Amino acid sequence: MKYKSLVISSILLMLTHVAHAEQIGSVDTVFKVLGPDHKIVVEAFDDPDVKNVTCYVSRAKTGGIKGGLGLAEDTSDAAISCQQVGPVELSERIKNGKAEGEVVFKKRTSLVFKSLQVVRFYDAKRNALAYLAYSDKVVDGSPKNAISAVPIMPWRE
Fold it and tell me: Where are the domains of the chain?
């Protein structure tokens, strides 16, 4: 019983560091007579552990009746672009290599088994952050992915 509560507590603690996205726009790609159209959605999120880095993710969103009810599975197509929007401040966890390959964003793309994730890597040698977007699925994930890098440079106004 103690083990079960420890696992649940650990999962909840990990989820607190995952950013939440704000939808900034969308475009329709396929007209659907019943239910919402298929679309490409553009969302923005700020890295929860790196001050002044914002990432923009575009992803496919399935419409139709199933999509309108939240039962459809979105495709694994996504793109990402991350930008420095002010002076970058890395947390000590990142500087010390304790946040290597950390999930910074996760969005459900099917009812239960599939999600879009963004993972951050710190490249200390080149003084840059790399953000990898990919889709995973419990049984069969997708090799489709996108990457964006943010050089950590002095900020000029």
Answer: 2-151
